[in-house]
Amino acid sequence: MTNHLPAIGDLEALLVGGGSVYLSGCAAEIPGFERIALNSENNPLNISGIFLPGINKCNYSTLANNARCQTYFMTPQMAVSSVDGGVNYCPWRYREIIRHYLLNPVDVAVVMLSEPDAEGFCSYGVTSDFAPFILPAAKTRVGIINSQMPYIPGEKIAFEELDVVVRVDSPLIETAAARIDDVSRQIACNIAGFIENGATLQLGLGSIPGAVASVIQDRRGLKIHSGLIEASALELDAAGALCPDTPILGGVALGTKDFYDALHNNNRVSFRSVLTTHDVDYIASADSFVAVNGALQVDLLGQVNSSVLPKGYISGPGGLPEFVAGSLASENGRSIIALNATAKSGEISRIVPVLQGCQPSVSALDVDVVVTEFGVAELRGKGLSERIARMIAIADPAHRDALAEAARTAF
Of the four listed, 82, 89, 197, 225, which is most buried by Cβ atoms within 10 Å? Predict the structure, then answer.
């Protein structure tokens, strides 16, 4: 029998005994959960979830004296607790996160869901990535039924399978559309030549993927297979660029309330778990799969850094390795890493001699195409000297001489 609780705070009784807890993150962060006061000093509490920098701002390791938070993306709020061991940062690719949860079912899963449909099924809504296989396997299954969560076709769970239910009427976390400036538009134009009619696209987060969507609206028969979906996907559909017989495949949505509302009962989208969206073989099975992702730095070998700044980790590899591997295995597929050539108004080159202080998000062995506003560097199948020359050629002209000099001493 499902136990109906009146408020989020009443979940405290499930947590004081300690154990492992999975929480919804991304746009479906549980409202008010951070205000639960726990006294679990003698019962270790291990909290985990997909918490995104800039979106999820709670440091769950502070919920109790003996709480620890395992995160796969470093956030500024959690970085302050990583030194004392309160936060366990695991920069894993999605395949390893999936494996971890399949081998270690959590004690309690607290997941935001939509209202049940006429047949009694709740949608996982805008966070259909990990919860569809974590929640059913948990010892205690908690559904936070949010009247503002859209019912998105795809992954769902029967209401009667939930052990505990709390009903809320709470806005989802909203994000504004990334600003598309002249630089990101030029980068998008450099990428557009790789996207032909009928291609399958994965577009990452940020201004460059948004700009790509804006410059390819004249294409036809495109398909979208992405971990993250933004409003640009629906804009492509409205422009007639997408295959009318193939729904937009995604797992997580980020955007405005209007975007979330547009996803509600929208048969043009299908949200699936990472077991589908990030399955390398499934990605590879699509002809002409083009993956477009951003980076913080790329070195002259083509190694990609997508998660570390000089001050420390600010994100994580996420699903990037899966989309790189899948697109490279796709017939006529391409993996494109796109970034501005400089930072801080041109002072700092984001094309660097050699990555330092981080593990590469994409290795030199797996790099395919790197794009900046200054051009395209196709690196797959190229030797060392040619790679270096091509990477220097897409750097800002003001930094090319320094890069060439560094290359002479480093290689």
Answer: 225
Sign of CA dihedral 47, 52, 56, 62: positive
Structure token pair of residue 198: 């009928």
* Length in residues, the chain: 411
- The β-bridge partners of 22 are 48, 109
SS3 19: strand
Nearest to 317 by CA among 303, 333, 331: 303
C-alpha span between 72 and 97 (Å, rounded): 8
Lowest mean pLDDT among 122-136, 179-193, 351-365, 376-390: 351-365
Which residues neighbour 177 within 8 Å (Cβ) at sequence distance 6 or greater? 210, 230, 231, 232, 255, 256
Distance of CA 364 to the CA centre of its chain: 22
Question: Residue 70: in which H helix or E strand, if any?
Answer: strand 67-71
pLDDT per residue as tens digits for the range 217-262: 999 999 999 999 999 999 999 999 999 999 999 999 999 999 999 9
How many other C-beta atoms are found inside a 10 Å radius of the C-beta of residue 198?
13
Are the C-beta atoms of residues 220 and 240 closer than 8 Å to each other? yes
C-alpha span between 97 and 50 (Å, rounded): 10
Distance CA 251, CA 78 (A): 24
Please, is 324 exposed, middle or buried when counting C-beta atoms within 10 Å of its C-beta (0-12, 13-18, 19+)?
buried
One-letter amino acid of 258: D
DSSP letter for 368, please.
-
369 in Cβ contact with 390 (< 8 Å): no
pLDDT in tens, 127-165: 999 999 999 999 999 999 999 999 999 999 999 999 999
CA distance 62 to 275: 31
Percent of the chain with pLDDT over 90: 81
Alpha carbons 64 and 47: distance in angstroms, whole number: 11
Closest CA to 308 of 345, 343, 357: 357
Instruction: Catalogue the E-assigned strands of 136-177.
Output: 140-146, 156-158, 164-168
Find the farthest-apart pair of alpha carbons in the chain and give their distance in angstroms, rounded: 70
Per the CB < 8 A criterion, the answer to whether 112 and 8 are in contact is: no
Give the three-state DSSP class for 109. strand
